[in-house]
Amino acid sequence: MQPIIIVLIILVVLVFIALIKTIQVIPQASAAIVERFGRYTRTLNAGLNIVVPFIDSIRNRIDLREQVVPFPPQPVITQDNLVVNIDTVIYYQVTDARAATYEVASYIQAIEQLTVTTLRNIIGGMDLERTLTSREEINAALRGVLDEATGKWGIRVNRVELKAIEPPTSIQDSMEKQMRADRDKRAAILTAEGIRQSQILTAEGEKQSAILRAEGEAKAAALKAEGEAQAVRTVFEAIHAGDPDQKLLSYQYLQMLPKIAEGDANKLWIVPSEIGDALKGLSGAFGNLGGGVPGFDTSGNGGNGGNGGNGGNGGAPGVVNPRGAAVERREEPPVH
């Protein structure tokens, strides 16, 4: 009985292994290559698949999702004989599992080597400055070459990106100095433009202020002149409304004479001729009392009028000239 039990156990194990090998579950976005006696038979897609155990075998399982592969820095010589290190990143996707398995031994290594050679060809026709500023152009050229070469391998290159472009250390130092000089230059230009703009605005402000000040002074002068004119008109109208006689006018003229003679520095002044007419009126007013105004000559000769004609005894010699001539005032020294 024991040999029979052992045989049954072996049969059960074999059946279990056969079932495992018969049923193949392929995950989503994956594919499997089936070979029968070493020859390609078919490609298993996602889901449950049945194969012949011990006859069919799974050669390769391939991920059909987009893959990202970074490549290490590669030294590349530019057109101006400078060595730069360039890091690249490839985004690719397997579109044909059979071609990716049988058309190339290792598509990852093939893509890397193709990227390096293509990159050297592209960068070799550019100088350093163009290399640093033409990333999009380099990416497009790399993608075009890789997509054309990897199409027969069942690979589609979606994107090619340059991670970094590192020039030599000496070139980096020179570039930093140049950039610093450019920044200093731009800063100096901006500072000068700011000062110029500030001066322009200040000048415009001063100009506007001067214009407004002049307009204000002009308006103030006009208002002052208008006020003085109004005051003169008011006084004139009041005088005419009061109908003053000759005696009042003569008295007003006499009140103005001391103001004309004010100040020690006044050596010469002009006596208007109208004062003569005023004195004649006054002389007529006082004619009955004293025969004239002492100290004044109404005849136009000036000098010795009345009892005060000798100067210093109550008269006013050299003060009045009714014809409007210049009269000199003399000051006698005091008597001790």
UniProtKB/TrEMBL annotation:
Feature: compositional bias, Basic and acidic residues: 326-336
SMART domains for this protein: PHB (SM00244)
PROSITE patterns assigned: BAND_7
Pfam families to which the protein is assigned, alphabetical: Band_7
Compartments reported by the entry: Membrane
Region feature Disordered, mapped onto this chain: 297-336
Keywords: Membrane, Transmembrane, Transmembrane helix
Domain Band: 21-179
Membrane topology: Single-pass membrane protein
GO cellular component: plasma membrane; side of membrane
Compositionally biased tracts (Gly residues): 297-317
Listed CDD domains: SPFH_paraslipin (cd08829)
Main location class: membrane
Similarity comment: Belongs to the band 7/mec-2 family.
PANTHER family assigned: STOMATIN-LIKE PROTEIN 2, MITOCHONDRIAL
Name the record gives this protein: Band 7 domain-containing protein
Lineage per the UniProt record: Bacteria, Bacillati, Actinomycetota, Actinomycetes, Kitasatosporales
